[in-house]
């Protein structure tokens, strides 16, 4: 069934689905997106990743590298429902794109490889969706591959993601013989033939009837354990009807009680129609999710997804195109019309909406209006950034912006030719505007321009973007962001700040205890401040000033000027002067007092570490393990399967530069790997001695 893409949706919000496609790199999510666009009539030819002809991977770098780098929004129509879909990146270096996309989505399809099951970045994006509270359904892809195993993939979903999988299909055939699925709700076989669009609806094959009945019974039992209405019917009738089962699956999906699991092969056009039907049936519409919450003058307020309410939308992406600047936003409430003025309630700036566009990756269709629930691009705003709220001027509301990951890798960049310096500054500003996880700063010591990002590939893509815009740049070796922490604290560190240079003076006396702070891995940035001063020896407003001063001191540690993390500071005593004490004096005392205490105690250097998951041929395992050891890696596990071994290790990020080339060389191009940041770890003394000045 293919829908005419020209069909306009005028039905209510209940027929809108805002979804994302999430997956580990190479699990097939872009191919899934392409098949959705083809089957809905949005495109008239199947795009292929390996040919560089996909709609959503339209950037030249995406086509050259064969991976998704930038989140791409598309809109299509299926069975009278408008589906606004965002194809997200699967590589860990572009995880911030996933975070910003999830912030504006109501549901998602998580794609898993039927051979590999749940892979590291697939797990990472699943956890991101957990934090955002986004309901999901799972699609086990690539069932036509050698070694594909639906049951093994489902087991990995249960074990690694900690969810209850509700398997709604049974594959027909294995590996290259995979031809279709049995729909366990309707107990019908859906069979696809090569070279033909759509599936044939047939009775369940005789050889699969017993297995299909067993799996249907298992699905009924599992759902009955989780859903009261299904349990009531199961106890009364000894089973659950298809209608009750579908209703329960919808409730469990939207409430997070379980995850519907479907399967197929997107590359061979098998399983996409049932996936679309599941998106419509189980994932929520804008009316099914809680009203958006924002703040106004410190007060939390809600605004319902009502086209008649005052307009309120959140910007999640900004993109520069040859024809101008596009601002992508999710409309949460109200109606936005072309030519209207919107307000940024944080800056107080108003901007006019010149055009509203329905987006299909790099192609657009102009529309006059966007209503609550829509995901569109607008032309006109010049200052809006990802995370900016745009709303009706008469009804301001500030929505919570998506979080931004902290950069961990940096390179120095400079223009090769002096006349290009201004162009480089402009281009870097545009990059940081489009991708908030890229940070541009000037090194105060060297005067170099430093570009920081989430990984080596992230920076490679950014630098290549500069070059493709005609800016020739020279790039230094990547550097990681080290931290300093307290290895051994100090007790009773006294600092007395006295300044008298005519007029009112400054006086502040503080006594500080500094100690290491035990925190979970990956949260080394924690800092705690507390006061145990009694008797009013330091007034409360001065206590707050001391805390502010201590936070100021964390910017540069005593070892090498890196930020200080993982410590607790306790103000134990102090003294004031009746005339010369002030908040400024106590803030200064807090800053200088903590710096002195850190110099007195023992501090240590921390480095960012990453979990590396390398999949290599069995005959190359020894060389790969030796290389990881040489990079100060600590192997945490390995599993063997079908002639390959997957090795998991924790490796300092500084040692991973150039690892892709080394792994290809040691495995004759057959090895692959992924990385996932996992916090900070102490630098060994021998390495620390090389890194520290002097």
UniProtKB/TrEMBL annotation:
<dbReference type="GO" id="GO:0005525">
    <property type="term" value="F:GTP binding"/>
</dbReference>
<dbReference type="Pfam" id="PF22042">
    <property type="entry name" value="EF-G_D2"/>
</dbReference>
<dbReference type="GO" id="GO:0003924">
    <property type="term" value="F:GTPase activity"/>
</dbReference>
<dbReference type="GO" id="GO:0003746">
    <property type="term" value="F:translation elongation factor activity"/>
</dbReference>
<keyword id="KW-0547">Nucleotide-binding</keyword>
<dbReference type="InterPro" id="IPR035649">
    <property type="entry name" value="EFG_V"/>
</dbReference>
<feature type="binding site">
    <location>
        <begin position="87"/>
        <end position="91"/>
    </location>
    <ligand>
        <name>GTP</name>
    </ligand>
</feature>
<dbReference type="InterPro" id="IPR005225">
    <property type="entry name" value="Small_GTP-bd"/>
</dbReference>
<dbReference type="InterPro" id="IPR041095">
    <property type="entry name" value="EFG_II"/>
</dbReference>
<dbReference type="InterPro" id="IPR009000">
    <property type="entry name" value="Transl_B-barrel_sf"/>
</dbReference>
<comment type="similarity">
    <text>Belongs to the TRAFAC class translation factor GTPase superfamily. Classic translation factor GTPase family. EF-G/EF-2 subfamily.</text>
</comment>
<dbReference type="Pfam" id="PF00009">
    <property type="entry name" value="GTP_EFTU"/>
</dbReference>
<dbReference type="Pfam" id="PF00679">
    <property type="entry name" value="EFG_C"/>
</dbReference>
<keyword id="KW-0963">Cytoplasm</keyword>
<dbReference type="InterPro" id="IPR031157">
    <property type="entry name" value="G_TR_CS"/>
</dbReference>
<feature type="binding site">
    <location>
        <begin position="141"/>
        <end position="144"/>
    </location>
    <ligand>
        <name>GTP</name>
    </ligand>
</feature>
<keyword id="KW-0342">GTP-binding</keyword>
<keyword id="KW-0648">Protein biosynthesis</keyword>
<dbReference type="InterPro" id="IPR004540">
    <property type="entry name" value="Transl_elong_EFG/EF2"/>
</dbReference>
<dbReference type="InterPro" id="IPR020568">
    <property type="entry name" value="Ribosomal_Su5_D2-typ_SF"/>
</dbReference>
<dbReference type="InterPro" id="IPR027417">
    <property type="entry name" value="P-loop_NTPase"/>
</dbReference>
<keyword id="KW-0251">Elongation factor</keyword>
<protein>
    <recommendedName>
        <fullName>Elongation factor G</fullName>
    </recommendedName>
</protein>
<dbReference type="GO" id="GO:0032790">
    <property type="term" value="P:ribosome disassembly"/>
</dbReference>
<dbReference type="InterPro" id="IPR035647">
    <property type="entry name" value="EFG_III/V"/>
</dbReference>
<dbReference type="Pfam" id="PF03764">
    <property type="entry name" value="EFG_IV"/>
</dbReference>
<dbReference type="InterPro" id="IPR009022">
    <property type="entry name" value="EFG_III"/>
</dbReference>
<dbReference type="InterPro" id="IPR014721">
    <property type="entry name" value="Ribsml_uS5_D2-typ_fold_subgr"/>
</dbReference>
<dbReference type="InterPro" id="IPR005517">
    <property type="entry name" value="Transl_elong_EFG/EF2_IV"/>
</dbReference>
<dbReference type="InterPro" id="IPR047872">
    <property type="entry name" value="EFG_IV"/>
</dbReference>
<dbReference type="InterPro" id="IPR000640">
    <property type="entry name" value="EFG_V-like"/>
</dbReference>
<feature type="binding site">
    <location>
        <begin position="23"/>
        <end position="30"/>
    </location>
    <ligand>
        <name>GTP</name>
    </ligand>
</feature>
<dbReference type="Pfam" id="PF14492">
    <property type="entry name" value="EFG_III"/>
</dbReference>
<dbReference type="InterPro" id="IPR000795">
    <property type="entry name" value="T_Tr_GTP-bd_dom"/>
</dbReference>
<feature type="domain" description="Tr-type G">
    <location>
        <begin position="14"/>
        <end position="287"/>
    </location>
</feature>
<dbReference type="InterPro" id="IPR053905">
    <property type="entry name" value="EF-G-like_DII"/>
</dbReference>
<dbReference type="GO" id="GO:0005737">
    <property type="term" value="C:cytoplasm"/>
</dbReference>
<comment type="function">
    <text>Catalyzes the GTP-dependent ribosomal translocation step during translation elongation. During this step, the ribosome changes from the pre-translocational (PRE) to the post-translocational (POST) state as the newly formed A-site-bound peptidyl-tRNA and P-site-bound deacylated tRNA move to the P and E sites, respectively. Catalyzes the coordinated movement of the two tRNA molecules, the mRNA and conformational changes in the ribosome.</text>
</comment>
């Amino acid at each position: 069934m293919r829908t005419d893409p020209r069909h306009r949706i005028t039905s209510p919000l209940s027929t809108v689905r805002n979804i994302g496609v999430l997956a580990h790199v190479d699990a097939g999510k872009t191919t899934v997106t392409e098949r959705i666009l083809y089957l809905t009539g949005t495109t008239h030819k199947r795009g292929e990743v390996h040919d560089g002809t996909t709609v959503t991977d339209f950037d030249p770098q995406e086509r050259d590298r064969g991976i998704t780098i930038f989140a791409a929004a598309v809109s299509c129509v299926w069975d009278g429902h408008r589906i606004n879909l965002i194809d997200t990146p699967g590589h860990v270096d572009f995880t911030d794109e996933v975070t910003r996309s999830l912030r504006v989505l109501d549901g998602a399809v998580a794609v898993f490889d039927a051979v590999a099951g749940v892979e590291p970045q697939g797990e990472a994006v699943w956890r991101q969706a957990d934090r955002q509270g986004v309901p999901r359904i799972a699609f086990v892809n690539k069932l036509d591959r050698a070694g594909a195993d639906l049951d093994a993939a489902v087991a990995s979903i249960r074990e690694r993601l900690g969810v209850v999988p509700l398997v709604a299909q049974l594959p027909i055939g294995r590996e290259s013989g995979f031809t279709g699925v049995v729909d366990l709700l309707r107990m019908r076989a859906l069979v696809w033939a090569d070279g033909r669009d759509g599936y044939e609806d047939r009775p369940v094959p005789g050889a699969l009837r017993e297995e299909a009945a067993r799996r249907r019974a298992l699905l009924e039992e599992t759902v009955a354990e989780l859903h009261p209405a299904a349990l009531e019917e199961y106890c009364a009738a000894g089973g659950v009807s298809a209608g009750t089962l579908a209703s329960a699956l919808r409730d469990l999906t939207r409430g997070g009680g379980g995850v519907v699991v479907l399967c197929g092969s997107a590359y061979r056009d098998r399983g996409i129609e049932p996936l679309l039907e599941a998106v419509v049936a189980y994932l929520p519409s804008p009316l099914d999710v809680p009203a958006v919450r924002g703040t106004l003058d410190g007060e939390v307020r809600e605004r319902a997804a009502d086209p008649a309410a005052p307009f309120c939308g959140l910007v999640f992406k900004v993109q520069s195109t040859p024809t101008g600047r596009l601002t992508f936003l999710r409309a949460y409430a109200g109606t936005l019309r072309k030519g209207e003025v919107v307000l940024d309630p944080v800056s107080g700036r108003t901007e006019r909406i010149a055009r509203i566009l329905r987006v299909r990756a790099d192609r657009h269709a102009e529309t006059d209006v966007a209503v609550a629930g829509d995901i569109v691009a607008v032309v006109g705003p010049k200052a809006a950034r990802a995370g900016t709220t745009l709303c009706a001027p008469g009804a301001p509301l500030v929505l919570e912006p998506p979080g931004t990951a902290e950069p961990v890798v940096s390179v120095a960049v400079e223009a090769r030719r002096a006349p290009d310096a201004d162009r480089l500054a402009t281009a870097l500003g545009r990059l940081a505007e489009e991708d908030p996880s890229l940070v541009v700063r000037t090194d105060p010591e060297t005067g170099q321009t430093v570009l920081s990002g989430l990984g080596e590939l992230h920076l490679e893509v950014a630098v290549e973007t500069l070059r493709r815009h005609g800016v020739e740049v020279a790039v230094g070796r990547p550097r990681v962001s080290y931290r300093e922490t307290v290895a051994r604290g100090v007790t009773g560190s006294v600092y007395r700040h006295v300044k008298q240079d005519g007029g009112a003076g400054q006086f502040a006396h503080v006594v500080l205890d500094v100690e290491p702070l035990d925190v979970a891995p990956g949260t080394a940035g924690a800092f705690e401040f507390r006061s145990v001063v009694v008797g009013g020896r330091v007034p409360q407003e001065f206590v707050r000033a001391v805390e502010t001063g201590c936070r100021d001191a964390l910017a540069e540690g005593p070892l090498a000027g890196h930020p200080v993390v993982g410590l607790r500071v306790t103000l134990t005593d102090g003294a004031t002067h009746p005339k010369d004490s002030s908040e400024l004096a106590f803030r200064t005392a807090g800053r200088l007092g903590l710096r002195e205490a850190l110099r007195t105690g023992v501090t240590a250097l921390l480095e960012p570490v990453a979990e590396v998951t390398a999949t290599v041929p069995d005959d190359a395992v020894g060389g790969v393990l030796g290389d990881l050891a040489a990079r100060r890696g600590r192997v945490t596990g390995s599993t063997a399967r079908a002639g390959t071994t997957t090795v998991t290790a924790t490796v300092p990020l500084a040692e991973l530069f150039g690892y892709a080339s080394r792994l290809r060389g040691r495995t004759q191009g057959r090895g692959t790997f992924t990385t996932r940041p996992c916090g900070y770890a102490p630098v060994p003394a021998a390495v620390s001695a090389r890194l520290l000045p002097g």
